[in-house]
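Fill in residues.
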């Protein structure tokens, strides 16, 4: 059993997310808020993060931070000294659990052993590496700057630095991608000394270069049948090589689950700091303004940098919580769920019953889990649950 699953709970367990928006270049499919990798922007961000940290301190009373995630962007570009400084703020308050998972996103082209050793010494104990594919032609289509050889080297360099908890991201449904290219990528990734893997199908999002080209791209993305074959073959091959599927898009060796992401699926409260960062706190979602200058300016004036808030109604929130927690392969213990969040509504019971009858869900001893059919069509299951109303 992973250490964090057996930790005694005496305080409110929470997570922290820091959005570090810097990239050497923006990928054509990326819809996140990112900025060029420039020192003046970094200095501005650090000022804003420190001001925001001081602003949220009252919320941390009685809390224990069990995961920290530096996302972006490419957070490894921020620098060892800055990451160490942020972690020192948290340690100073005495809220950081001794077994906290502290993750840093990086890209292969920005990784080397001395840098990763520095991050390890600063407190980073998990690295998430954006590889996406091992095929040179597809890397060019995605506008990625690393080579497949650099991706191998990056994983080895992270491991050599003493960071054993290594996750990689892969992508399928890339324009012009063939099934054989997907097979090759899977063959390469299972050889690596990784503990965790996430893979996703490429979705074309608004405000991206791909979105502007979507009419042309629709003609060259894998067809639905090939896409489904990629998905099922990928799951089969990863599990054959010891990467067990524990969530719709995530696989782990030796139960090295992403503690941070599990928190998202189980409604653990989290606070997001930085421009465009989301938070989930006291059953309310809110987001910081996606503009570094205005984010810092508001904090200098002691104003909130939040520009979006959403407080879901009780029933709407309950439906969403159930749909999201079903992403986990272990399923949802309905008795525990109801103790934590409240009793299922009549329409939720009816929807769950219908999904069981149509073989999307299974129920065993009050535990609701996705069937094989449900795993393959999770979006359908989630839409049915979220959309049901009394």
């Amino acid at each position: 059993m992973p250490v964090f699953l057996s930790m005694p709970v005496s305080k409110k367990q929470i997570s922290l997310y820091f959005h570090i928006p810097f990239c050497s270049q923006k990928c054509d499919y990326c819809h996140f808020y990112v900025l060029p990798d420039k020192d003046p922007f970094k200095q501005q961000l650090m000022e804003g993060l420190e001001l925001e940290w001081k602003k949220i301190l009252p919320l941390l009373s009685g809390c224990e931070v069990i995961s920290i995630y530096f996302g972006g962007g490419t957070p490894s570009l921020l620098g060892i000294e800055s990451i160490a400084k942020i972690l020192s703020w948290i340690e100073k308050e005495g809220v950081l659990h001794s077994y906290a998972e502290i993750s840093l996103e990086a890209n292969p082209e920005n990784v080397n052993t001395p840098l990763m050793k520095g991050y390890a010494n600063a407190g980073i104990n998990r690295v998430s590496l954006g590889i996406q594919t091992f095929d040179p032609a597809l890397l060019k289509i995605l506008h990625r700057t690393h080579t497949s050889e650099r991706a191998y080297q990056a994983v080895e360099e992270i491991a050599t630095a003493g960071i054993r908890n290594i996750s990689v991201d892969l992508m399928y449904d890339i324009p012009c991608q063939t099934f054989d290219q997907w097979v090759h990528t899977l063959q390469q990734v299972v050889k690596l000394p990784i503990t965790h893997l996430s893979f996703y199908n490429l979705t074309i999002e608004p405000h991206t270069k791909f979105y502007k080209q979507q009419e042309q791209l629709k003609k060259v993305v894998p067809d639905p049948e090939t896409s489904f074959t990629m998905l099922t073959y990928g799951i089969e091959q990863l599990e054959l090589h010891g990467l067990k599927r524990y969530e719709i898009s995530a696989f782990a060796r030796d139960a090295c689950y992403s503690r941070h992401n599990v928190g998202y699926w189980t409604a653990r409260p989290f606070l997001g700091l930085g421009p465009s960062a989301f938070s989930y706190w006291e059953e309310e979602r809110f987001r910081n303004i996606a503009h570094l200058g205005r984010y810092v300016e508001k904090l200098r004036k002691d104003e909130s940098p939040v520009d979006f808030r959403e407080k879901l109604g009780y029933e709407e929130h309950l439906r969403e919580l159930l749909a999201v927690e079903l992403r986990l392969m272990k399923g949802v213990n309905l008795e525990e769920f109801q103790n934590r969040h409240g009793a299922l509504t009549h329409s939720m019971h009816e929807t769950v019953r219908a999904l069981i009858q149509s073989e999307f869900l299974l129920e065993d001893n009050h535990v609701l889990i996705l069937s094989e059919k449900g795993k393959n069509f999770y979006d359908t299951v989630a839409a049915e649950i979220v959309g049901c109303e009394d």
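Residues 10-263 form a domain with the TIM Barrel fold (CATH 3.20.20.70).
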